[in-house]
């Protein structure tokens, strides 16, 4: 079926656009949520009016929510959890928990639809987009780590530091030591030989 979007819908389109969608998605979600209406034969004229109005509203929202986007973008939230040996959580981290932590840390209230993520059920690091408007989508880093252990971000940093350190093979160390020892022996022999040669060259009394 074809629908006329009357509001911006993430990953689908902007208000004023006509989109072809699955009938169930349109009838059971878009239309009941007042995000779209079924496109009529004369929908193009209606679409133009909606598009102009939506552009004005979007611009005002972008200005209003710009500061919030700056606060959230690049921030990291950590969730210590209980998990099995394979890293699977005893439970999950939901978007509601993420919203609560955002509110507790930054005093910013969000709706569930603005934090689009499936429940997190595995230890790891996740990038979570926050949909403020179609143009403002700051991204948070969510680290889910085992209780009593450091956040994975710290572990990763340590691993990267170790990987950056040059690896020295044991055979290279042995070869270098042998070379140094040979150099010392040669130098010692030369120092011992030089005085003897000087004594031989002195005239007899």
The CATH C-level class name of the largest domain: Alpha Beta
User: Can you count the helices?
Assistant: 5
Strand-pairing-aware structural class: alpha+beta
The strand order across the widest sheet is 2-1-3
By CATH, the topology of the largest domain is: Ribosomal Protein L9, domain 2
Q: How would the global form be characterised?
A: elongated
For the largest beta-sheet, the strand count, sense and barrel status come to:
3 strands, antiparallel
Any idea how many domains?
A: 2
CATH architecture assignment name of the largest domain: Roll
User: Which bin fits the share of residues in helices?
Assistant: 40-55%
Which H/E pattern describes the elements? Answer: EEHEHEEHEEEHH
Distance between the termini: 123 Å
- Strand tally: 8
Work out the oligomeric state of the chains in this entry.
single chain
CATH superfamily of the largest domain: Ribosomal protein L9, C-terminal domain
Sum this structure up briefly.
The protein is α+β, with helices and mostly antiparallel strands.
Structural features, described:
The structure is a single chain. The chain folds into 2 domains: 63 residues, Ribosomal protein L9, N-terminal domain (Ribosomal Protein L9, domain 1, 3-Layer(aba) Sandwich); 92 residues, Ribosomal protein L9, C-terminal domain (Ribosomal Protein L9, domain 2, Roll), CATH 3.10.430.100. The relative contact order is 0.10. The longest helix has 32 residues. The strands form 3 sheets. A 3-stranded antiparallel β-sheet has the order 2-1-3, sandwiched between helices. The chain is an alpha+beta fold and 205 residues long. The chain is elongated and about 90 Å long. The N and C termini lie far apart (123 Å). The chain contains 5 helices and 8 strands.
């Amino acid at each position: 079926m074809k629908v006329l979007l009357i509001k911006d819908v993430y990953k689908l389109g902007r208000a004023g656009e006509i989109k072809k969608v699955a009938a169930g998605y349109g009838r059971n979600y878009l239309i009941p949520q007042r995000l779209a209406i079924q496109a009529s034969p004369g929908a193009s004229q209606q679409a133009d009016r909606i598009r102009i109005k939506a552009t004005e509203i979007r611009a005002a929202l972008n200005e209003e929510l710009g500061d919030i986007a700056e606060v959230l973008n690049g921030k990291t939230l950590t969730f210590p959890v209980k998990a099995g040996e394979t890293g699977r959580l005893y439970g999950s981290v939901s978007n509601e928990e993420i919203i609560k932590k955002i509110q507790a840390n930054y005093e910013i209230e969000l709706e569930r639809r603005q934090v689009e993520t499936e429940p997190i059920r595995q230890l790891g690091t996740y990038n979570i987009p926050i949909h403020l408007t179609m143009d403002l989508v700051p991204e948070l880093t969510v680290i889910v780590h085992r209780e009593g252990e450091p956040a994975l971000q710290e572990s990763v940093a340590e691993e990267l530091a170790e990987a950056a350190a040059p690896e020295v093979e044991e055979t290279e160390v042995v070869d270098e030591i042998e070379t140094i020892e040979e150099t010392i022996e040669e130098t010692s022999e030369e120092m011992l030989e030089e005085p003897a040669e000087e004594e031989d060259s002195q005239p007899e009394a």
